[in-house]
Amino acid sequence: MSLDYKPWIKFYNGRPAETEVPELSLYGILSERAKTNPEFFAVEYMGAKLTFKELTGLIDNAADALCALGVEEGDCVTLALPNIPNAVILFYAVNKIGARVAMVHPLSPSVDLEYYLNKTGSKWAVTVDMFVPKFMDIIGKTAVEKLVVCGIADYLPKLKAIAYSLTNKAKLPANAGLLVKWKDFLKTGAAASEKQEESGRGCHEASVILFSGGTSDLPKGIVLSDFSFNALAVNTQKTSDFEAGDSIVAILPVFHGFGLGLCIHMAMVCGGMSILIPKFSTENYIGALMKHKPQFIAGVPTLFEALLRDPGFKSVRFDKLKGAYSGGDSLPHEAKMKFDAALRAQGSKVDLLEGYGTTECVTACVLTPPGNYRKGSIGVPMVNMETCIVREDTTEVLPPNEEGEICIAGPQLMVSYLDDCEATARTLRIHSDGKLWLHSGDQGYMDADGYLYFKSRIKRIFKVSGVNVYPPQVEYVLESHPAVSKACVIGVHDDYQGKSVKAFIVLADNAGGDSELADELRAYCAERLIKWSVPKTIVFRKELPTTLVGKVAYTALEKAASN
Question: What does the CA dihedral 556, 560, 562, 563 come to, rounded to 10 degrees?
Fold first, then answer.
């Protein structure tokens, strides 16, 4: 097959197959936009708004404050924050001074937070007041010297802030040497005698770390560059026609590539407004849709299914909608058809488009072409991106319609895995065309027109409400419980979440378990795993099926569960 095999270009509707990606920092490209559209709104948060001029002023202030705390170029700052303005401000402020930012889930269990902080070597971390106790449990086991404490109410309109503070009082421990409240943090920056210029770090160097659960007991740190984020922004803009002044609802979390790359950075680069929603509920989401009438929406399949089940959703009008994107998990055909019908009935002319990507390329790199949906397909490569199918464990490119591993090339690729040269070398490989390709670990095929079809994950992984669940990680935790001898975890169909976690357990005393022990094991997992990884169903067995070489035959359990 020709190495220049790109049949998908004919579905670009006249758009160029390649476009230039700015060689700027994340902060640099945002500040350029602020100069162009200073009075355009960049952020909306529960009724409060920040213009690009106001946002960059806060970013500069925060950058000065970070330097006053001792953060230097090359250091790492960990942010464990929901979708609040503080997260946006700090993401760009850390970038301005040339430090790296690690974005982690604020609901992560303490053991994961400890791992993230130590893996990145962070001496500085930021969270919200309600999660401070969790940090205090582990901070002595890390190198963290300062913990900046934000509040959900920091940027709420005045009356909302007062109401929130009256009903949500978070009492902070007395630790003046460690804790820095957000307002005091900004005052430190404002009082700094030396104002920070933008770092000279190259845009292809490591700048952002996102964590994706590993296939063993520990998550992998995925190291991304400014260039990879800028590439996503440009590629998406050229595909979607996002324009200055447009808005997108940012309910996808800032600690995930989909939320951070698409709903925050892409919108900022294009001069658009991110409508921040700190906590998901259909009521909050529907309220934002009705109030702001955004031009773009994005979410995981379970979000769209939840909207369809809510009676209030029928009141939303989509006359101004220009794009609707689903990612993070496979979008069932029936769910797409139902949501498309709802969009039509409520004034929209667009369809819900499915995207595909991995955190190793920030997020989506494949998207369904508007008006050219094919049942079962996840779409075609976006502008500047390429895909091919190779025989597993090789770089041999396979012909159309033959199943193999999905590989991705283009400017969105990660720099590396954090401190894991072996895994990086397995994932990023030079093919015979001389290009660097990302081996996704996903199995699928490409048809003769360049449409990609996802079949399964080569590695053991499934998604619950769009969140990655890694069975070996859950098994590792279960088997660390003294009552458990062996555990096997699979994903089973769930009408709401897509899949849920089911665990098969052999007890150490080979006795039969009961509901009380099952509840104990769930609580044990809840302390050590993110909530989506906690088993919903636990089955006790005397033994587990094994392969000829003695490994647990999880595929046999999956097959039995699907019958």
Answer: 140
Contact 286, 297 (CB under 8 A): no
| Consecutive 10-residue averages of pLDDT for the chain (563 residues) | 74 91 97 96 97 98 96 97 98 98 92 94 96 93 96 92 78 80 95 87 97 64 98 94 96 93 97 94 93 95 89 96 91 90 96 95 95 95 96 93 96 97 96 96 94 83 85 87 90 88 89 88 93 94 72 81 78
Q: 196-218: string of b/e by CB count within 10 Å (b at 16+)?
A: bebbebebeebbbbbbbbbbebb
Nearest to 87 by CA among 124, 126, 30: 126
Pairwise CA distance, residues 278 & 252, whole Å: 9
- pLDDT at position 551 is 64
Report how far apart, in Å, the C-alpha atoms of 540 and of each of 305, 417, 486, 516 are: 32, 37, 10, 12
Residue 269 amino acid letter:
V
- The beta-strand segments (E) located in 213-251 are 220-225, 247-250
Of the candidates 244, 183, 182, 226, the residue with the CA atom closest to the CA atom of residue 42: 244
C-alpha Rg value of the chain to the nearest Å: 23
Distance CA 415, CA 437 (A): 12
| Cβ(170)–Cβ(44) below 8 Å | no
